[in-house]
Design goal:
- The chain is α/β, with parallel strands linked by helices and 307 residues long.
- 34% of the residues lie in helices and 20% in strands.
- It has 10 helices and 11 strands.
- Strands 1-2-3-4-5-6-7-8 form an 8-stranded mixed beta sheet.
- Helix 1 packs parallel to helix 2.
- It is globular and about 50 Å long.
- The two termini are 25 Å apart.
Length: 307
Amino acid sequence: MAYSSKIIFGPVLSRRFGLSLGIDLSPSNKQCNYDCLYCELESSKPILQMDTYPSVDEVLGELTKALLIHKNIDVLTLTANGEPSLYPHLEKLISKINKIKQNTKTLILSNGSRVKENIEAFKLFDIVKLSLDCASQKCFKKLDRGHKSLEIESIISSMLKFKKVFKNELVIEVLFVKNINDKKDEVEKIYEILQILQPHRVDISTIDRPPAYKVNPVSLEFLQDTAKYFKGLNINIAYSNKNSKKEVKKDSFTKDELLSLIKRRPLSEEDITKLLDTPSQKIFYKLLKDKLIKEVLSSELIFYKLS
């Protein structure tokens, strides 16, 4: 049976990190200092700090309950409806999570904009995933659309300093969007930075879930060519693979739990068959029939979102 609350969601099957139990540090509304064109959440004005958020004790209480049910999780993923590093008690929270996680790894999915402010907290994670979509301010302003106070040069500088002190796994994701950051000069600049940064892995990807704005993915061929160009780095082309053979324990979801999950993360056809047990799939298709969820085509793949 699945465990779902406003704070805990999943498990979901991550293309890059395995079976993940999500911890939403902004469950009430989107709070982010970016407004990325490709975001799977609705567009919103960038902010610099969270206004509403759960307490550390609330998060730990919900997580403790969830871990009693889910014992085969690969990672505990700190995320948010927006940017998790805006959470004001991040260091205290991850310190306490580390005391109860046992063999499960901890992961934070961050846009990388607040590494400098959260360096001590980030050092406590098993895996830190940072985004680096652009290397120039012009591209950054057009694609990631960060708060006006943010500059990509300063963000990159903080990433480089963090890498020198971080002992665990650093993953950098570059998400390419057609006709924006796929141009030769931008790709070259990104590669120059990655060569200096030398992360443990670089995930290169493109849009595969319905984006907030009308932008398009690059082709798989472009990702393959870019992977070849990024010599000397551990490159993972992260795209949906319907032929994945990994066996994942299927969970049971109620109607409300499914709606809550889909609200946070559009589900693919693969997610439906791999994550939901038979009764849950019946509930899912009833939701679809009743038009509480809708089918959306994105990057030649079908996803399901709230109507």
